[in-house]
Design goal:
By secondary structure, this protein is mainly alpha-helical. It is 59% helix and 3% strand. The protein has a five-stranded mixed sheet with strand order 3-4-7-5-6. Helix 49 (1038-1052) links the parallel strand 8 (1036-1037) and strand 9. Helix 17 (308-320) packs antiparallel against helix 18 and helix 21 packs antiparallel against helix 22 (393-410). The longest helix is centred in the middle third of the chain and has 45 residues, at 570-614. The chain is elongated.
Length: 1127
């Protein structure tokens, strides 16, 4: 001991012998005093098979089993002791007592002498103290690892040595702590939990002593002495040790929070590791401490070092990934928003003592903050961006909302360069559609797999895309260059084979153009058009995949599930399994085809809506691109409907599975109608003035295509050949026409509106243009009269020839000059004359027969309602109406016999088309639409609509499991009070609601107007104008208007003057379809068949006038109310 005190600076490795002797002396002192051995505080497992013998020896005194004690008592040195000493040579208690009494050890050495050496360590130089600490750690390790008698004497001295030498210079202290840190980590990972517990508690005591001292600036020793907690926390396999560490760190932080400086980094590291722990108690314990730190002690986090803010953010993000408690994850996301608020307030700048904070001029602080501290946003925003791919819907949606809310609220702090970096690192990763497509199993070349519609993602996707459009609209001037990449994001959704995702992208594109369309340049509009073009072309191969896959599948004649495999042989079971697999693949193909149809229909509708709203911003190149898209989609729709073998298989599958067939006919009709309307709109608006002949030629080609499609459906494969062979001098026998099957008749009825539109388009052409293309059109018109058709088609065909080619120009049409007459075969001229003759003959004959079978048309003005309704035949079936597309019960052979749709004549006004999107009356709350809008459930979900107010009692509620319905029961009187209470509840609960009637023009607008009067305090005229500006097709009847006036009197006491010029009030509506063929305005009346004043259908008429309205269904209701539709 004297040597250790006097020559300690020169001992170096010899300190191990000195400290070992001190350890032995201390042990002998304890034995002499009769103190219990330290091993009693630890639970040691001794690997001895004879457990009874070992327990008996422990009862006699475990201290006697110490190898060092046995060596000393026998007279040997401590180095001669061996861990593997045999138990047969144990020392008896009498030998120990005699040995201690002979040494008189208690009289010579006491605790004071032992402690004096450790206290004297403060006087050792730098190298000596390091050697001293190394030797002490080695001796302590030997004590703790003793298999029979673990001791903690040296461990307690380590804590004292660290405390005595705490004031040494940084260089020396760092060397000391490197040794101590490795020691604590090694012992903390011990398999003996009692030893590990004792070591961690000793480290906590040492850390508390250090935290009592204030750390100097730029001195990160707190982080160093807390690091062993993090290392043991990460490497320990014992949940008890990990929980102890969390509790130790919690105790240190909460009791010494004001003194924690650089130690925050290690604290957050420990909690970050705890957030990913597999034990729920540890996770919740750590998050509770983290919650208190962020909520109550946030200013202390960045008081000395702002980089700890990043560690705090990473810790919170780790808790959001916790799988045990979603509430903890959501609270962690909320704390991330709190951190963003603190960061935006410039808190990090003011807390940074290395910079001067100018409290007098906060604007200057914010300016400096933008440049110097903007990088702190990166981990916060990137962490939230990664959370958007979390499998839990609530976490995913919460992360999306918080991310975009932070960007919208604090984006003014960012420069344009940083904004671009945010889009690349935080925003675009949210919309990683490659991973999403992996989730949806696409069709392979040789197999047909299931298309997984993970509906849990749809809501968060809709929220994310909506937030993106809203954010981009707000910062468009700063990030205008990112428009191309935003369009790529939307394109990735539009290209998705899932119609829900595709609708999300299309609706977002409409929102983007509505918000920023007036600011787009010509190049930007071209980018928008190209996105639609590439997206449409991307969807076409999906149909080829379906065709290829279905070609390898055979459909059984009858389908039956076989659950009892024991009743069948192995061969029969394999056959049945194969049939089940084929039927399953076929059902997937039907789903895929329906989605494909829905995506194409949505694309063409968006194109039409874009043109209607932004046509003034479109140049000729933009219109050309849109025209090309519609043309390609129309051609593709015809290709889809021409795959007879595929459609037959799918029809068979649908019959076996009792599911609806894919609406391929509706797709073809709709695509061709929109393409033809788009061509007519271009010609009307003079968008492509220089290309007018080309547009007219495309109109004629499209009409020719439409006519040929109709003739093919009716059984005429080639219009020209059929017309040439209609009259044959070599064969005077009359042809026998085979009646069409009912399915073909239904298809022809569904194509009625398309064929009528084509004929009207031809009628709108100039006379000279029509003459130039007459050779192509005339044979098709001839066969059109010969085929099965409705009276509406006959009326349109007769009108076009009576106005464009009256009888007095028949010779001019068939005339051939004398020079050419000699070159033309007389038979060819005779055939041409026969074509005209037979066309006139058939037109007159069919008109006469139609007039005879429907005498009410001659007396429509004077006959009662019963005479106007067609007589019902025996066979009635549920089929789609050829005009509106809804399902009604109609008389076979007629277009629609119950719904009351009329076919008024057309004037020069553009044909209005009903949009699939309802009209937004009040932002994010109130929507107004028709029954067609209410029947599009997926589109309503995309818009966020959850409740529907049905104003027509007879309208069927289609999606009772998906939406909350409220129906008005009275058909005659509108129940304004009932509707207002329902709408008020929806607005109070922030639920989006759709108000609809049949057409969206009369009853539902009245309900919306009444609610605006009641909730907003507006008068009737103001409320009506508000609705009319957003939905121009509103047409209130006189009865409904009177009810609104009465409602205004009841609420305001008196009604304001409401001049007729301020409001459009019409006769009882015909379900909103009277705009398909608007009635002409003019004094001159053109003759139409089935009218008594008509002398001849070929008499010369004013070519500038239009035909009268032709009724080819039931006459409109005269009651002023919308007729109920059969559900």
């Amino acid at each position: 001991m004297s040597i250790a005190i006097e020559d300690g600076n020169y001992l170096q490795e010899a300190w191990e012998h000195v400290l070992t002797c001190l350890s032995r002396f201390e042990h002998l002192l304890l034995l002499g005093e009769g103190a219990p051995p330290e091993s009693s505080f630890f639970s040691v497992s001794v690997p001895d098979p004879d457990e009874k013998l070992q327990k008996n020896l422990k009862k006699k005194g475990s201290a006697l089993q110490n190898p060092a004690v046995m060596a000393v008592v026998r007279g040997g040195s401590y180095d001669s002791a061996s861990v593997g000493t045999n138990l047969a040579g144990l020392v008896s208690p009498e030998q120990i007592n005699n040995f201690i009494s002979n040494l008189n050890l208690l009289d010579q050495i006491g605790n004071f002498e032992l402690n004096h050496i450790f206290a004297h360590s403060q006087r050792l130089n730098g190298d000596a103290i390091v050697a001293f600490v190394k030797a002490l750690c080695k001796v302590s390790m030997a004590e703790l690892q003793s298999p029979t008698d673990p001791r903690v004497f040296s461990l307690t001295k380590i804590v004292e040595i660290a405390h005595y030498n705490m004031n040494r210079i940084r260089l020396v202290w760092s060397r000391i702590w490197n040794v101590l840190s490795d020691f604590f980590v090694l012992v903390g990972l011990s398999e003996n939990l009692s030893v590990a517990f004792f070591v961690m508690d000793s480290l906590r005591q040492l850390a508390m002593k250090f935290l009592e001292r204030e750390e100097l600036a730029n001195y990160n020793f707190q982080n160093e002495f807390l690091r062993p907690f993090a290392v043991v926390m990460q490497k320990s396999t014992s949940s008890e040790i990990r929980e102890l560490i969390v509790r130790c760190v919690t105790h240190m932080v909460l009791t010494r929070v004001g003194n924690v400086k650089s130690g925050w980094k290690s604290v957050f590291t420990v909690f970050t590791i705890a957030a990913a722990d597999e034990w729920k108690n540890i996770v919740l314990l750590a998050f509770g401490t983290m919650e208190k730190i962020v909520r109550d002690y946030f200013p202390y986090i960045t008081e000395t070092e702002t980089t700890t803010f990043t560690d705090c953010v990473k810790c919170l993000i780790a808790f959001t990934n916790s799988k045990f408690n979603s509430d903890a994850s959501l609270n962690a996301i909320a704390f991330l928003r709190f951190c963003a608020v603190k960061l935006a307030e410039g808190g990090l700048v003011c807390y940074d003592k290395n910079k001067e904070c100018n409290h007098a001029n906060p604007e200057e602080n914010i300016s400096n903050y933008k440049d110097d501290h903007v990088f702190f946003w990166v981990p916060l925003l990137s962490g939230l961006s990664k959370l958007t791919s979390d499998p839990r819907p609530t976490i995913r949606k919460g992360a999306v909302e918080v991310l975009f809310d932070i960007l919208k609220d604090h984006g003014h702090l960012f420069s344009s360069i940083f904004w671009i970096n945010i889009f690349k690192s935080a925003i675009y990763p949210v919309f990683n559609m490659e991973q999403r497509h992996d989730g949806y199993l696409l069709l392979a070349e040789n197999s047909l797999g299931p298309f997984e519609e993970e509906s849990a993602y749809f809501e968060s996707d809709a929220v994310a895309v909506g937030c993106l459009i809203e954010l981009f609209t707000k910062v468009f001037d700063v990030v205008r260059s990112e428009l191309v990449h935003v369009l790529e994001v939307l394109s990735s959704y539009i290209k998705s084979p899932c119609r829900q995702l595709s609708n999300i992208g299309l609706y977002a594109l409409l929102r983007l153009t509505d918000n920023l369309g007036q600011n787009f340049s010509e190049k930007e509009w071209k980018d928008v058009s190209l996105v639609l073009k590439f997206s449409a072309e991307f969807t076409f191969p999906v149909f080829s995949q379906i065709v290829d896959a279905m070609s390898k599948i055979s459909i059984p004649d009858r389908f039956q599930t076989y659950s009892d495999a024991e009743d069948y042989s192995d061969h029969e079971s394999s056959v049945h399994n194969e049939e089940d697999a084929n039927m399953e693949k076929a059902s997937y193909a039907i789903v895929r085809l329906k989605d494909h149809v829905a995506v194409l229909l949505s694309i063409v509708e968006v194109i039409q809506k874009l043109y209607e709203v932004h046509k003034k911003s479109f140049s000729a190149s933009h219109v050309g691109i849109l025209l090309e898209i519609l043309s390609s989609v129309a051609s593709h729709s015809s290709k889809v409907n021409s795959e007879a073998s595929l459609l037959q298989k799918l029809e068979k599958v649908c019959s076996l599975l009792e599911i609806p067939e894919p609406p391929v006919v509706h797709l073809e009709n709709e695509c061709h109608q929109r393409y033809l309307r788009f061509l007519k709109n271009i010609l009307r608006d003079n968008v492509l003035v220089s290309d007018k002949p080309i547009i007219e030629s495309r109109i004629v080609s499209e009409c020719e295509n439409v006519l040929q499609i109709y003739l093919n459906c009716s059984g005429y494969s080639s219009g020209k050949d059929a017309a040439d062979n209609m009259v044959s001098h070599n064969n005077s026998m009359l042809r026998r026409v085979i009646p069409l099957p009912s399915a073909k008749k239904e298809e022809l009825a569904a194509r009625t509106s398309l064929i009528v539109l084509a004929i009207r388009a031809l009628n709108d052409l100039d006379r000279d243009t029509f003459r130039n293309h007459l050779r192509r059109i005339f044979p098709l018109l001839v066969n059109l009269v010969r085929s099965e058709h409705s009276s509406g088609i006959l009326s349109a065909a007769a009108w076009i020839l009576s106005t464009k080619h009256p009888l007095d120009r028949f010779d001019q049409f068939c005339h051939v000059s004398s020079q050419k007459r000699n070159l033309i075969n007389r038979n060819a001229l005779r055939k041409r004359r026969n074509q005209v003759f037979w066309f006139i003959f058939f037109v007159a004959t069919v008109a006469l027969l139609d007039c005879c079978h429907r005498p009410s048309l001659l007396f429509a003005k004077s006959s009662p309602r019963k005479l106007q309704e067609p007589a019902m035949r025996k066979r009635e079936r549920e089929n789609p109406c050829g005009v509106c597309g809804h399902y009604h019960r109609y008389e076979e052979g007629e277009v629609c016999g119950i719904c009351g749709h009329r076919l008024p004549a057309s004037d020069d006004r553009p044909i209005q088309h009903a949009s699939a999107f309802p009209t937004e009356i009040l932002k994010d709350f109130l929507y107004l639409g028709s029954y067609d809008n209410a029947s599009r459930g997926e589109l309503l979900k995309t818009l966020g609509i959850s409740r529907i107010l049905n104003t027509v009692p007879a309208c069927q509620n289609l999606y009772k499991n998906s939406f909350t319905y409220h129906c008005l029961k009275d058909l005659e009187n509108l129940q304004f009070d009932d509707a207002n209470q329902f709408l008020e509840q929806c607005e109070r609960e922030k639920a989006r609601v759709l108000v609809h009637c049949m057409s969206g023009k009369n009853r539902s607008p009245a309900i919306v107007i009444a609610y605006l009067m009641w909730s907003r305090g507006w008068r009737l005229i103001q409320s009506f104008q508000w609705v009319k500006e957003r939905r121009p097709q509103v047409e209130l009847t006189t009865e409904v208007h009177a009810q609104l006036v009465e409602f205004e009197k009841r609420n305001f006491g008196s009604n304001e003057a409401f001049p007729p010029s301020k409001m459009i009030v019409h006769e009882p509506p015909s379900f909103g379809f009277n705009t398909l063929f608007p009635k002409g305005i003019g004094a001159t009346t053109a003759p139409v068949f089935n009218q008594p004043t008509t002398v001849s259908i070929f008499q010369s008429v004013d070519t500038n006038s239009d035909p009268n309205a032709f009724v080819f269904g039931a006459v409109r209701s005269s009651t002023g109310n919308e007729a109920p539709m059969e559900s």
